[in-house]
């Protein structure tokens, strides 16, 4: 399906802090997972390299794709083949996810663009998943900032 869906969230954090949340596997785990999920994210974030998102609690759940763009604090893009529908591993069946970060007076505007949905079911899943996931990401960013601000200052 040749359609693009965009979702945006305003975050009271710097692009660097948001970037960590969308690229560090331990932080990604905290906002990507639903009830009963324990995900493992594997990638080196180099364009052309693989990315794998595996649910350790549900054998057989393994979404994978390739990193397309990695521009720190600005742009992250990768493809993803959703394993639940067991579609052939062909480029036409991979959805593209693009995270764009823009600094603003309040922090960072994060926009997620989703495109190339191989089926209506994937489109519906992505729309229903990413709204709550971005809200969870917002919560993870806030917790991370709070955690860092509570650290004692050096020399105090």
Can you describe what's shown?
The chain has 156 residues and is of the alpha+beta class. It has a single domain (4-145), classed as 2-Layer Sandwich (Alpha-D-Glucose-1,6-Bisphosphate, Chain A, domain 4). It has helices at residues 15-23, 25-32, 120-149; strands at 4-11, 39-42, 50-55, 62-71, 75-80, 95-104, 107-115. A 7-stranded antiparallel beta sheet has the order 1-7-6-5-4-3-2. Helix 1 packs across helix 3 and helix 2 (25-32) packs across helix 3 (120-149). It is globular, with a radius of gyration of 16 Å. The chain starts with a strand and ends in a 7-residue tail after the last helix.
In short:
The protein is of the alpha+beta class.
């Amino acid at each position: 399906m040749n359609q693009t869906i965009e979702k945006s969230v305003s975050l009271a954090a710097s692009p660097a802090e948001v970037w960590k949340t969308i690229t560090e596997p331990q932080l990604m785990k905290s906002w990507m997972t639903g009830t009963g999920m324990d995900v493992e994210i594997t990638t080196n974030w180099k364009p052309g390299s693989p990315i794998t998102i595996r649910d350790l609690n549900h054998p057989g759940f393994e979404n994978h794709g390739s990193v397309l763009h990695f521009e720190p604090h600005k742009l992250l893009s990768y493809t993803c083949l959703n394993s639940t529908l067991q579609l052939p591993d062909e480029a036409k069946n991979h959805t593209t996810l693009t995270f764009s970060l823009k600094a603003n007076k309040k922090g960072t505007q994060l926009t997620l663009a989703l495109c190339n949905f191989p089926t209506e079911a994937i489109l519906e899943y992505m729309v229903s998943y990413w709204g709550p996931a971005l809200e969870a990401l917002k919560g993870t960013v806030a917790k991370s900032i709070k955690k860092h601000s509570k650290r004692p200052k050096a020399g105090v």
